[in-house]
Design goal:
This protein is mainly α. It is about 70% helix and about 0% strand. The longest helix is centred in the last third of the chain and has 35 residues.
Length: about 325
């Protein structure tokens, strides 16, 4: 609300960078604490994390919001019905295609969310401390993706073309994770985790930038565009995490019961099915993304660098 129309997308990206930094640092701290693993130590770390979450949230929220952030005129101004704004927003077929692309791409990148760490521990025999560092690797890759995105956007690259690069990196990332088991290579596994973050970061920034630069008609506003981006991402992430875990459990249960034959009894089979499904979804994302790619990149006015004075205060 405090950012201008021109800088809102970049401010949201900055907030997401802070989120990734927090994830990366916390993963390193927890991984260090769990180096000498025991069940009691795990309980203590979880309890400590819960207390720190409460304390840090109180500090973060303290006096951050005014009791009445909007003026009286803003509150009394007539607001269009959601159905009218949504109809205006989706009358362009490219907008609908963008929503579908965000949803499918988010599913493709997030289906592994609850599987990477158990995959490393169960299949590659990594310690609890080592698998915890996967979060730091993912966050580091995502931060690198944000940095590359900022550089490319400042050069006027088409956001959809940049999103395609992220998808291609994601395909390579999941291929590396898949191959790490038969090759017994933890190094390849960690590289794959970092590349998942890199590809996902590029895709997230690309689709957010695209959502904030599309032509908004009628009663629809930039806030609706940002809300649609967030809703498509959250829905895709939530569904994919549930689907990924369920598929892994169902396939492994069927495999260990002998229903899939003697060649598919390994615990790695369930994980492999999920990772291959994610690669398939990434190819579908590329197909959906293709018609959206512009012949030319963004205009200079859309890629203006974000100065310190632009940040909401």
């Amino acid at each position: 609300d405090r950012a201008s129309e021109e800088t809102r997308a970049k401010v949201v990206s900055l907030l997401y960078v802070m989120y990734l930094l927090g994830m990366g640092f916390s993963a390193l701290i927890i991984g260090t604490l769990l180096r000498d693993y025991s069940s009691l130590l795990l309980v203590q770390v979880v309890q400590g994390a819960a207390v720190m979450t409460l304390v840090l949230n109180v500090i973060a929220l303290w006096k951050q919001e005014k009791l009445s952030p909007m003026s009286t005129a803003e509150r009394s101004a007539p607001k269009p019905a959601f159905s009218v704004a949504w109809s205006d927003f989706t009358q362009d077929s490219s907008v609908v295609r963008l929503i579908v692309t965000i949803f499918i791409g988010t599913m493709a990148f997030n289906m592994q969310d609850v599987l990477l760490e158990p995959y490393g521990g169960e299949i590659l025999g990594l310690s609890v401390s080592s698998t915890t560092l996967l979060t730091a690797m993912w966050a580091g890759g995502a931060l690198l993706g944000f940095g590359l995105a900022a550089r490319w956007l400042s050069q006027g690259i088409d956001p959809f073309r940049m999103g395609g690069r992220g998808v291609i990196i994601g395909i390579a990332a999941f291929s590396a994770v898949l191959l790490s088991a038969p090759l017994s290579s933890p190094v390849l596994f960690f590289i794959g985790a970092a590349l998942i973050g890199l590809g996902g970061g590029l895709f997230a920034v690309a689709t957010l930038t695209a959502a904030m630069t599309i032509e908004v008609k009628g009663a629809a506003g930039r806030g609706l565009a940002l809300g649609v981006w967030g809703a498509a991402q959250a829905t895709g992430a939530g569904l994919s995490i549930f689907i990924g875990g369920a598929i892994r459990d169902l396939v492994n249960t069927a495999g260990q019961s002998g229903a899939l034959g003697s060649a598919l009894t390994s615990p790695s089979v369930g994980y492999s099915v999920v990772y291959q499904l994610e690669i398939g979804l990434l190819f579908i994302t590329l197909i959906a993304l293709g018609p959206l790619v512009r012949a030319k990149g963004l205009h200079a006015s859309e890629t203006r660098s974000l100065e310190l004075s632009d940040f909401p205060t």
